[in-house]
Write a structure and sequence with these properties.
Number of helices of chain A: 8
Largest sheet of chain B: 9 strands, mixed
Order of helices and strands of chain A: EEEHEHEHEHEEEEEEEEHEHEHEEH
Shape of chain A: elongated
Structural class of chain A: alpha/beta
Strand content of chain A: 25-35%
CATH class of chain B: Alpha Beta
Number of helices of chain B: 6
Distance between the termini of chain A: 48 Å
Radius of gyration of chain A: 21 Å
Helix content of chain A: 25-40%
CATH superfamily of chain B: HUPs
Radius of gyration of chain B: 21 Å
Largest interface: A-B, 96 and 78 residues
CATH topology of chain B: Rossmann fold
Number of strands of chain A: 18
CATH architecture of chain B: 3-Layer(aba) Sandwich
Structural class of chain B: alpha/beta
Strand order of the largest sheet of chain B: 11-10-9-12-8-1-6-7-13
Helix content of chain B: 25-40%
Number of domains of chain B: 1
Largest sheet of chain A: 7 strands, parallel
Order of helices and strands of chain B: EEEEEHEHEHEHEEEEHEEEH
Distance between the termini of chain B: 54 Å
Oligomer: heterodimer
Amino acid sequence: MSVLIYTEIAKGKIKKSSLEAVNYGSRIAAQLNTTATALIVGDVDCTDLGKAGAKKVMKLKNDKLASLDPQYLSVAIEQAAHAEGANVIVFSSDFSGKAIAPRLAAKLKAGMVAGAVDNPVISGDSFSVKKNVFSGKAVATYTIYSAKKVISLLPNSFAVELNDTTAEVVEFAVNLDNVNSPIKVKEVKKDTSELNLADAEVVVSAGRGMKGPENWGMIEELAKALGAATACSRPVSDMDWRSHHEHVGQTGLAIRPNLYIAIGISGAIQHLAGVSGSKTIVVINSDKDAPFFKSADYGIVGDAFEIVPKLIQAVKNFKANQN
Amino acid sequence: MKILVCISNVPDTTTKISFTNNDTTFNSAGVQFVINPFDEWYALVRALELKETLGGSVTIIHVGTSDSEPTIRKGLALGADDAVRIDTEPSDAFAVAEQIAAYSKDKGFDLIMAGKETISYNSAMMGCMLAELLNLPFVSMATKLEVAGTNATIEHDIDGGTEVLECPLPLVLSANKGMAEARIPNMRGIMAARTKPLQVLPAVAADKLTSISSFTLIPGRTECKFIDPSTPEKLIELLHNEAKAI
């Protein structure tokens, strides 16, 4: 009765959010005196899954799985869970986790908590799991009563830990003869930037204070110097200055990087809802009364057009001294 | 085309959140409730646009008590034709999905839409669970939806990009930003909403798989440390040595 963790590949490697989930699942397994088994589709070096704590890796095999269609995947994971006698299945609460995990939970009648932020407290057959609610304003403790449980972990809740452990890798043939998804993928547009905003440790975000899309050069340059992803506020994406994929906030993406640098963003409550989970927040704004300063750890009051170029230079000097 | 839009009743985005009963219950006193923004701006408005171009009907479904009726009426004021309320406390996403599945399974909806998540519980589970219970395909985080004949073309967000899919109807989808522009109900819509049908149905027996035992508010930040704008290198030093963020 191992704990199963569904994992994925991005840019030729195991996703960072998947490694976080394997760490998380292996901690649950230790509490239950069992082991963690990672599931994966596709060919990739699985060493890191072992290092993250999986005792076993099951490579799910069926041609229908190639497009990662959740309808097929949920059946594949159900079959793997059955074979392993697994009652606890862990996902990352990333986009694909959100499309697969609830489907599997409904199939298994498993109680599910999406976006867990802490390790479950296990008492008998029930789990207590904490998750953020009210868009990052509060934490709720959920109790899962059902024997089968599905938990998805909010990305960036824990740093990835890799140890000198290894996993046995096996192939697992999935039977999808009776499953037919009518969905056809016509086109995939992958973001070519190195960094995925949801995964990024450092995010440089800018708002209306930048006055126009032509001024984003310095934002991108600062992000590049810091190895950060770029983001923006809602008005900026509404005015099409930046793609809506960069919009962070209540109605955009919720992120929780190590460091969030907000430039020319006043800090409306809806924006804070999407970024308040960040560990350290820096706010740069010309208005000393901008509400965002109340939710910041560090602030600079002043003109972004003067401060950001200086900051870029300061980051470059810092990085040069580090090497 | 027959469209069903699932709506949640949530505290307005500017609500100051608090809890009662020893931190076990959300304190709704004085709170303004609205249609969950993802359900309204993206799912419902796109459903109304499709009805306006292709014909058909838009039905709203809500699982909740009579306290939610002003929220349901707002959906009718925006242009939905009729509404159904399943009269029970929405205990968790699976219980809501079971109620909506029980209602919709034999009604012949071509399209069932919900927002990508609620701004109250942020779980993003209900639509996907509903699709499984109805044995229908599900597309998450849709940002564009076009329907031609019995086929839908959908653009949706995936990890690190977007994907364009084709899927025959019927299907279930969750709507993300980009689907449609927000609308404001006009006076005619508000007047008409008063007399549009709102059917109240008893709940079917549902499973109780999870519950919330307590809430804790996330504390705000202590105090912002200000750095002189002429010395940004000081910020870098603090981020490195104090915050250990870089």
